[in-house]
Amino acid sequence: MINIRKLESELWESADLLRAGSKLTSNQYCMPVLGLIFLRYAYSRFKMVEAEILKGRPSRGGRVMPVEASDFAAKSALYLPKEAQYDYLLNLPENIADAGLVNKDGHKMNSLGEVVNNAMQLIEEQSEQLVGVLPKSYTDFSDELLSELLRIFNNSALDEVGGDIIGRIYEYFLNKFAKNIASDDGVFFTPKSLVKMIVNIIEPTGGVLLDPACGSGGMFIQSGDFVNAAGMNANSTMTFYGQEKVEYNAQLCLMNMAVHGLAGVIKSGDEANSFYHDAHNLDGSCDYVMANPPFNVDKVKAESCESAKRLPFGMPGVNKNKEVGNGNYLWISYFYSYLNEKGRAGFVMASSATDSQGKDKDIRESLVKTGHVDAMISVGNNFFYTKSLPCSLWFFDKGKADAIKDKVLFIDARNYYTVVDRTLNEWSEWQLKNMNAIVWLYRGEIDKYNALLDEYRTVLGSDKPFAEQVHELSEKAKVLRAEAKKAVEAADRGDRKKTQEEYDTKLAELTEVLTVAKEANWLYEKFGDGEYHDILGLCKVAYTTDEAKGDDKDGISIEEKGWSLTPGAYVGVAPVEDDGVDFEERMSEIHRELLSLQAESNDLMDTISQNMKEMGL
């Protein structure tokens, strides 16, 4: 089995090393590199489909009939002319100028950059969806650099198209570039765990999906994965529509979709500015709407918004310049308006929008009274690559079950996440499933909750109570750490590093299993065999109005909270668990450690000072 994480980081390190050596910025490097990953993907798929076609191929005079573009069209696959095939580009002579190569227009080519540009143009001629999308700036690269990049992405592991390895690599690179292109504010990339949370709760199965601020297409990719994982074919059951004002981002999106084998209609440029245009005429027609729109946009022309409609609850506040000072509630209104009578929406929004006042509050009241607000989730800091702001996830469902028609689920997930590094948090796969499980129980879908418990038991390989497994695995980890320390100390100097690495690997594997056990226990402790409960500090189901609350004395309504949709206003604060540490004793220890470190620091400064004197400095 391929270690995909190792492969991702190795490919990135190799490519980024070249970027640093080339003096190109991440911005200049991003699109061409992603284009090469696309080229490698297209070739892998081409070879796979070609092999299928040749299986039953007739022959004439002992010769198998050559494959043609029409054969690929019949299988909904991309045909690659010879000059656009990856192995052709890899095996070109070093001196292109002397090779006598001509491009598709018959002009002589003098560099590898020209040859790769020509390959991109040839591919665009084969696919209407890709026309004008693929990068053609490869003459900015030296032949040596481009040749090395082609070699880096010629890793045989990338041929596993069925496992979507290349899709993973593309997303990994996109993620890395988003972090590097901080000056761009990461506008084109929504962190994967937020996208997955939205897709998991929306649960797309088939129909029309719109993302009116689609960026690099993460919502489409994850929705496609979700549908395919459910045993259906995303391209035949889903129709993807996107709007993206920035053409560069729309190109990333179309390449991303193509790399994942998805087709969609993406519009870009001024006609795709969602504030003023319903570019696909989808108002009231969507089964699903998913988005991470730009927050807090100001100076939006009010008259243009009104004429573009999609405002079922009226306009947000308009200033004397006839501008909407904050576009958040334009987005919220549009997302609701796009839905058909059973549609679901999920989107990322600035935290401030759950409680904003004035016209925003009036719109929110109208929205709550529809009964179509399904769930609200608070997300903590550091989930985005270039901003540390918290945000909220909003969910609408026009087809809610009668039992929850007048209720809304609030989840405060600000303290539930995995730390990736100092500036980035995310939800792990198991944390995503756990939050999804809370939504299932609120919806009465107990079978899905029980299936997750079974999945935990299967992965852990045990039917013992989860708390017991956590204890046993924690003890094993403690023993293994002690064993590692002794083994490293006892090893010969030359073998210590190797011994340490062997134990590190064992510890990492054990820690991974322990983490799964802890997440299983986290869920089971709260909801047992599958009954929803409000959990202080985590989740609360509130009624929409006082009338809906009726005589429920323990209940709370959104109306009595002034139409706030802030989860923290409902779930309360979790009690602080006693960690069993004596505060005074621990403070004394810390003080002693600090004094010891200060003493070491002083000794070190004396030594440095003495050495400098001896050197005559």
Automatic annotation (TrEMBL):
GO terms for biological process: DNA restriction-modification system; methylation. It is an enzyme of class 2 (transferase). Residues 7-153 form the N6 adenine-specific DNA methyltransferase N-terminal domain. Residues 163-438 form the DNA methylase adenine-specific domain. Keywords: Methyltransferase, Restriction system, S-adenosyl-L-methionine, Transferase. GO terms for molecular function: DNA binding; N-methyltransferase activity; site-specific DNA-methyltransferase (adenine-specific) activity. It catalyses: a 2'-deoxyadenosine in DNA + S-adenosyl-L-methionine = an N(6)-methyl-2'-deoxyadenosine in DNA + S-adenosyl-L-homocysteine + H(+). It holds the Pfam family HsdM_N. Its EC number is 2.1.1.72. Belongs to the N(4)/N(6)-methyltransferase family. PANTHER family: TYPE I RESTRICTION ENZYME HINDI METHYLASE SUBUNIT, TYPE I RESTRICTION ENZYME HINDVIIP M PROTEIN-RELATED. This is site-specific DNA-methyltransferase (adenine-specific). It comes from [Clostridium] polysaccharolyticum.
